[in-house]
Amino acid sequence: MNPADFASLLALRHPDRLFIAGQWVAPARGGAFDMVSPMTEEAYLRIAEATEPDMDRAVAAAREAFDNGPWPKLSHAERADYLRRIAAGLMARAEALGHAWTQQVGIIHAMGQVNAYGGAGIFNQYAGIADSFAFEEQHTPGYGGGTALIVREPVGVVAAIVPWNGPLSLASLKVAPALLAGCTVVLKASPEAPLDAYVIAEIAEEIGLPPGVLNLVTADRPASEHLVRNPGIDKVSFTGSSAAGRRIASICGERMARFTMELGGKSAAIVLDDMPVEEAVQGLTGSICLMSGQVCAALTRVVVPRRRHDAFAESFAAAMSALRAGDPYDPASNLGPLAMGRQLDRVLGYIEKGKAEGARLAAGGGRPAGLNRGFYVEPTLFVDVDNSMTIAQEEIFGPVISLIPAESEEDAVRIANDSVYGLNGAVLTRDRERAYAFARRMRTGNVSQNQFRVDTSVTFGGFKQSGVGREGGVDGLLPYLEAKTIFLDDAA
Fold first, then answer.
1. pLDDT 10s per residue in the chain (492 long)?
2. What is the CATH number of domain 3-263+467-485?
3. Is 136 known to be catalytic?
4. Ranges of each domain in the chain
């Protein structure tokens, strides 16, 4: 699908405006962002740019809706009904949302087609949690008699800051639990991928969500930092880089604002000695194609026994060389382009660092032949990598795998944990008990046996610099609630 046809299919009603207090309003300074296709490098749509005055206006609207509006006073069942209606609205626009993920980020369209289903599923899941979660619990006090009630109340006004790589699912993981809890939201979309957030805002308007409960702004970093600093924001929910997360945490710390963060990763897959080479390689090369490696949880470090390193290197090189980067609408393509020019420059820069520091380039390493337009890069494999090298320590956010030899199983665990990150991991073995034992020793928030697997219907988040708190499931609801203890005398 070409960008012009996509823009017509998406049919945003007010791309030149922001959604604040239930109204589509012009940005205060009249700015706009150009949407650039990662396949053609051509601009195809302009989206309103929010600046500092717009942030203040959105926070004021959310503050008014929380402090004086009906939303926090509704029952959880009533709020859940709105969530189900948002889910239905997403499904009604499933075709356009499937193209939106491809058009904005370059993801293979066969995967992009699940976009609406994933977002709708998150809203429906949280609507279902309203039926089972204990928003009020009764306890017997340790002394003094009477009854102790623990009630869970909304944290307040939430700044939900969403990155560009998975805009609908990541927005849904923030907006759905926040709304169920009774919070009001300022949804800050990425300039590179704001379209899904616009669709959510249009649905909010269609279903009659009370004014100010959900506000949409699209902004770059200076205005986004202004949003975080606004004293009307009670909580920040951020997904993005660890560097940006540290900055936001320091700002929130100045006034004890609550925050949750899902940040970067440099996740390791430990291959044990019973795992066949070809089976391990097949799964790991397939996972690096997901979103062209632009996934915080990607398994980009593969730790293998040293005596098997060369066999893995040969098999990986063949498998990676066979992958095809190309048009995400072409069924023959295994991966599409990177999302933007600066991301392509970043990945190519890390490839040069890998070569300069002595890692051996075994596959890929440049732009695919014949693809001079679009932000394409070859799937890339480095072998004989030392875990101290830059490519093994820093998040590249592209289809680059580092193959790292380990002297022993103890050494493999040490290498996996030798990182400032701790988001995801895998243990490749046919022995379930060994997989469990290794998973318990890995300092990371998510570990899977024999595959890349992330399931936010359960819970997801990281250790160390990979984040604070969790998203998805019941654990993803708790950060939007404050626990209050009420002691009551026995009834007369």
1. 887 889 889 999 999 999 999 999 999 999 999 999 999 999 999 999 999 999 999 999 999 999 999 999 999 999 999 999 999 999 999 999 999 999 999 999 999 999 999 999 999 999 999 999 999 999 999 999 999 999 999 999 999 999 999 999 999 999 999 999 999 999 999 999 999 999 999 999 999 999 999 999 999 999 999 999 999 999 999 999 999 999 999 999 999 999 999 999 999 999 999 999 999 999 999 899 999 999 999 999 999 999 999 999 999 999 999 999 999 999 999 999 999 999 999 999 999 999 999 999 999 999 999 998 999 999 999 999 999 999 999 999 999 999 999 999 999 999 999 999 999 999 999 999 999 999 999 999 999 999 999 999 999 999 999 999 999 999 999 999 999 999 999 987
2. 3.40.605.10
3. no
4. 3-263+467-485, 267-456
Please give the structure tokens belonging to residue 232. Answer: 């009307």
Helix (H) or strand (E) holding 23: strand 23-25
- Which one of 49, 192, 262, 378 is the catalytic residue? 262
Residues 154, 302 contacting (CB under 8 angstroms): no
Please tell me which residue in 289, 296, 378, 471 is annotated as part of the active site: 296
Tell me the H-state helices in 387-431.
390-393, 409-417
User: DSSP assignment of 225-251, as one string?
Assistant: HHHHH-TT--EEEEES-HHHHHHHHHH
**Residue 252 appears among annotated catalytic residues:** no
- 267-456: CATH number: 3.40.309.10
